[in-house]
């Protein structure tokens, strides 16, 4: 798409003519949408700063939001899984069981928003 088409798509989303905007990392920074309630990521970015900006499109100004990341285990580097779990734990966000299942053996996560148990303690990893 050319820039005019991208600008038109963003404007249609802003004007609530469409409910879904599909975008690349180009939209991770610099665009502000007041009403975004859910961001869906397909895959993880190479840079977790971009991930934070991606999911930061939702839940602004005291509103709740949700971010869903779709991963294909075979295409994700193990260190990305550990980094994502660390990011969530450090942000006091729940670490989904599906993500925990992808952590390397022996990795332990601490998260105040989840009960401690088999995964209580500090994140460590192989």
From TrEMBL:
PROSITE patterns: HELICASE_CTER. Coiled coil: none annotated. Residues 1-103 form the Helicase C-terminal domain. It comes from the Eukaryota. This is Helicase C-terminal domain-containing protein. CDD domains: SF2_C_DEAD (cd18787). Gene3D superfamilies: P-loop containing nucleotide triphosphate hydrolases. SUPFAM superfamilies: P-loop containing nucleoside triphosphate hydrolases. It comes from Erythrolobus madagascarensis. It holds the Pfam family Helicase_C.
